[in-house]
Every structure is written in structure tokens, then in C-alpha cells.
Amino acid sequence: MRRPAVQLVVIMTILVLQGLSLPLCAQDASNLKHFQELALQRNPAVHAARHRIEAAKGVKTQAGLYPNPVVGYHANEIGMHDSNGAHGVFVRQMIPASKKRQLEIELAGNQLTQFQFEYSLMQQRIKTDVAIAFGKLLIAQKRLETLGQLQKSTLDSMQSTKQLFESGQSGQHVFLQSQLEYEQAHLQALQAGQDVKTAWYTLRSLCGVEEDQVSRVTGELYKIIEPVSWDFIVDSIILQNPQVALLQYKIEEQKLFLKRQQADNSPDVEFMLSFRHHSLTDDDIANIQIGVPIPIFDDNRGNITAAQARLKSMENELSVLRIKLRVRASEVFRDYENSRLAEQRYRETMLPIAEKNLRLVQTGFESRQLDFLSFLTAQRTFLRINLSYLEASERLIEAVSLLNGQLLKDHLSQ
Questions:
Q1: In this structure, which topology does domain 36-67+96-266+318-413 adopt according to CATH?
Q2: Could you tell me the pLDDT band of residue 228, with boundaries at 50, 70 and 90?
Q3: In angstroms, rounded to a whole number, what is the distance separating the alpha carbons of residues 33 and 127?
Q4: Mind listing the pLDDT tens digit for each residue in 26-45?
């Protein structure tokens, strides 16, 4: 790919990262957006990336500066015929080969563009990480609510079976079983509460929030707008992946570096001009000196060979990256499809049935028309269906966040 084409891909990808996302889901955007904006403002990884840009700007500025001249004093022939010799001043200037200097400027500019691009990638990684953490907190809250309802239900059933046992209408084993169900639900609710705290601490750390008190996030679980095709995934995530564009730009940098090593044999010219006054003859003397190195022993062949090998290695890394992205995208797309189908099935079919079944069985149990075992079975089924629905929703949130973020996440591992 020619360099202008790579620049176009990079610019377009930056625009995509900054302004676009895949239309996969509807969510509480205001709340999630709030946490994402906090993270982009406060996360130290963003500030580190921004400082790398400033450093690269300094390197680019330095690459464009011309070498400083050297001004000095010199004296020779001191003592000849008892004279003070010749005394004067000189000016020496290194004149770098224009080709090498231009390549140094281009290399510095390429490095600056890479850091700017990596800054955008870091922002996207952080936004993806925050979206996943936000979703986990939302799911943890929903799970705590479900287990809280279960705890209340098991408490009511335990009280009912206690009354039946005390009135002689059922055995003690029924009351003990209901007591065990309540204790188990109580333990699960306590653990779910700890999960909420952990999810909040993760989100808080990503966003730089100092508040220890757990904040409640609000939002609907992901509602799918429309299924996403594999062709759409290939086009938007694999072919236009910013990681590929970044590596292509690094390959262009390596090509420039190779040219720079090949141009190293172009000699820099050293020019010196001096003026002296000779005390013995009372003459004013001017000297001009020009020198160039002759690449007889060091023709830079080692650095050229190393640069060529690194270029070939990076070109192969690009092919490997494309394979990795296709494999990773297929895995995420599989998770997305499976969790989307599961979430939709649970939400539209199984949850309403389980809720209706539990309500009917509970009414029958309270009116003494059904035994405790039937109520217990319906209660356990209701819990299992709800927790499975939340697990599917959590997997869906992560898959959607990854697809929206073009598989960019885990900014802390960068």
C-alpha cells in the first residue's frame, strides 16, 4: 500500500473511532456516556498517551532544526622566529545531506501520527472497558434484585410452613426444608451484594471516581435492534480494523527507516572558514576547509540488512494480525449470536412462563391446594430461568461492547 493510501486509511479510522459505533443495541446512553467521559478525562492511560504525542512533537521539531555552527579561536606557529604566531577565529558548519535530513523529518512526522493514532485507540479501549464494566454492574444489580425477591419469597414460605407444622398440617421436614431454602437464598443475596460492590469498584477505578459509596446505575438491559451479519463484521471490524491500519503505518515507518539506513552513505559535508593575523609577517590570512567521509570500511551494510529483515518480519506480522482478527471476530460474533438468541428467548418466552407458573403455584400453595414440593420446584425453576437470563444478558453486553469497540479492550494491558 502506498503511503498516501495508508494515511487516508488512518485518518478515516480515527474519525470512525471518535464518532461512530455499530448500531447493535439501545442502552441508557446518558449514564454510560457519563462514565465514559469521566474515564477519558481522568484515566492516567489517556494522559500518558497525550504526553507521548507532545514528546513526538518535540522530536519532530528537533528533526527539522539545522545543526548549529561552531565558532572558536585558534592559534598556530606560536614562537616561530620568536613571534607570537598566527591568531584568529574560525567558523565550522556541518552540512547534512539533504536526503538524510528529509528522511529524518519524515520519520519524526510518521512517529507523531502513530502516537496520535494510538491515542485514539487508547480512548476506544477505555470506552470499551467502561462499557463492559458498566454492563457488569448493571447485571450485578439486577441479580441482587432477583435474589432479594427470592429471599423474600423463601421467607414467606418458611413462615407458612412453620404455621403448617405448628398446626399439625405438615411434618417438620417440610419446615426444615423451607428453612434451608431461605438460608441458601439469604447467602446468595449476600454474595450478590458483594458482586455489586466489586463491579462498582472496577467501574470506579476505570473512571477515576473517588467515591467509596456504591452508586446505582440505571438502564435497560440490552435490547437488540437487528441481527448483525457476518459480512457486516468482516467489513467493519476486520477490513477496517484500526490495529491493521496502525501496523500498516508502522510498516511505512520501517520502509522510511530502511531508506534512511541506505542513505547513510550519502556523506555529510563539513565546512570550515577561518581568519588569522600572522604577527611575524603582519599578514591577514584566510583558510577554507571542506571535508567529506569516504565509506570505505563502514558502508552501513549491517544496519541495512537488519532494517530489511525487520521490514519483512512486520509484513508477516500484518498477515498474522489479520488471521487473529478474523478468528477473534468469529468467536465474538458466535458469542453475540448465541447470547442474543438466548436473551431474546428468555425475555420473550421463558421468563413470562416461569413468572406465571410461580404465581399460580404460590397461590395454590397458600390456599392449601398444592404441596410445598410443587411450590419449591416452581420457585427453583423461576430462579434458574432468571439467573440464566442475566448470564445471557451479561455475555451479550460484553459481545456488543467488543463489536462496538472493534475488538479493542484491556487498555491496562497495553
A1: Outer membrane efflux proteins (OEP) (1.20.1600)
A2: low
A3: 9
A4: 444 347 888 889 999 998 88
pLDDT band at 23 (very low <50, low <70, confident <90, very high): very low
Give the cell for residue 94.
Answer: 556541518
- For the chain, give every domain's residue range: 36-67+96-266+318-413
Residue 259's identity, in one-letter code, is K
DSSP-derived 3-state class of residue 258: helix
Rounded distance, CA 51 to CA 47, Å?
Answer: 6
Q: How many CA atoms are closer than 13 Å to the CA of 253, on its beta-carbon side?
A: 16
Does 219 or 251 have the greater pLDDT score? 251
State the average pLDDT over residues 320-336: 89
pLDDT at 262 over 90: no
| Buried/exposed 314-352: b ≥16 CB within 10 Å, e otherwise | beeeeeebbeebeeebeebbebbeebbebbeebeeebbe
What is the Cα–Cα distance from 56 to 64, expressed in whole angstroms? 13
Measure CA 122 to chain center. 5
Nearest to 408 by CA among 110, 47, 6, 13: 13
Q: Which three cell numbers stand for residue 187?
A: 447467602
pLDDT of residue 241 exceeding 90: no
